[in-house]
Every structure is written in structure tokens, then in C-alpha cells.
Amino acid sequence: MAKEYQIARTAGRCCRCDKVLDQREEFQAVLIEQGEQFVRQDWCLACWESPQRGEVAGLFGQWRSRMPEKQARKKLFVDDGMLLNFFLRLGGQAEAARVNFRFVLALVLLRKKLLSYEGTRKSPDGGEVWAMRIKGEEQVQEVVNPRLDEQRITEVSQQLGEILQGEL
Ligand SMILES: [Zn+2]
Questions:
Q1: Residue 107, SS3?
Q2: pLDDT at residue number 72
């Protein structure tokens, strides 16, 4: 059951040239949409910035990151602005992978107090839609509650955590 959410772990290597990324080395992390799931790829800057790189299929988001020091505790490598950006870009979309991902992101942002919960309305098909607001903004963000069970929430959270390579 966890299978469909399996994602490629970042092995600390460039996905293009297979170079091992050094401790504290800066690299490009990208979020790729592959069918039903999101996967993360890491690129060394030489490959990413190479004129021969070409288009990256399914590119959904990207951020600069730095490899941790070996002993350092894993940290969340994605800043709050990037999380909000992913959240907004996943809005208004019906594919299950995107709806699930956005919902779990909303839970993360709620916990980080970057989103507030304003209420719930029923959608015409009997589903549940949460009204949420980004801190400091007036506009209401609607979040479809895909009614994931605990197991699924754990799976999607793990997927998200692995993509972001940090602790959520
Ligand atoms: Zn490379």
C-alpha cells in the first residue's frame, strides 16, 4: 500500500552526472511531477546551470539547498515562502496526487501557523472544503479535504518529508 507513494530517496548524488555532493555543497533541488506522485531530484550546480541541460520534464518547483554536514541533524531545507508557493500552485486542481499533497501541505502550514483555519463548507458532491487564510492575507484559500485515513496521511506526509528532506 505504501508502494504507490514510494519516492526516490535523494542519495546525496547529482541525478545527472552521479557526482557525490559534498558536505555543505550548494545544489539545486527540484520537485518533479511523475504521474501520480511527486519525486525530488538533486542536481549539482554544474549540471543544473549547464547550457546543455535542456528542459526538465514535469518540473513543478525548485529551490537551492545545501548539503548538511555529516553529523548535523536533518533540517527542513525548504523555506516557508517555498512551502506557501507550492501550496498556492497546487490550488484549484483535481488530480488526486495534487489534492492529497496540498491537503497535507496545508496541515503542515497550519502547524507552522502560516495558515489559519476559518471554517468548512460542503461541496456539491458531498465532499468537504476547508476555508483557510494565509497569515497576513485577506484572501481565503480553499482546501479540499480528501478524507485521507491516518495511514494515508502518514504516507503522504512521509512523501512530503522525503521530498523536502527534513523533519515536519
Ligand atoms: Zn552533476
A1: helix
A2: 57
In a domain, 49, yes or no: no
* Nearest by Cα to 146 from 106, 113, 110: 106
| Number of domains into which the chain is organized | 1
In a domain, 7, yes or no: no
69 CA → ligand 1 middle, Å: 20
What cell numbers appear for 151 in the block? 495511514
**pTM of the full structure:** 0.71
Distance 165 CA to ligand 1 centre (A): 19
> How far does residue 11's CA lie from ligand 1's centre (Å)?
13
Question: Contact 96/121 with Cβ under 8 angstroms?
Answer: no
First-to-last alpha carbon distance for the chain, in angstroms, is 22
Query: What is the distance in A from the centroid of ligand 1 to the CA of 73?
Result: 25
Name the residue range of residue 142's domain: 80-149
Structure letter (DSSP) for residue 4: G
Pick out the chain residues at pLDDT < 70.
1-11, 70-77, 165-168
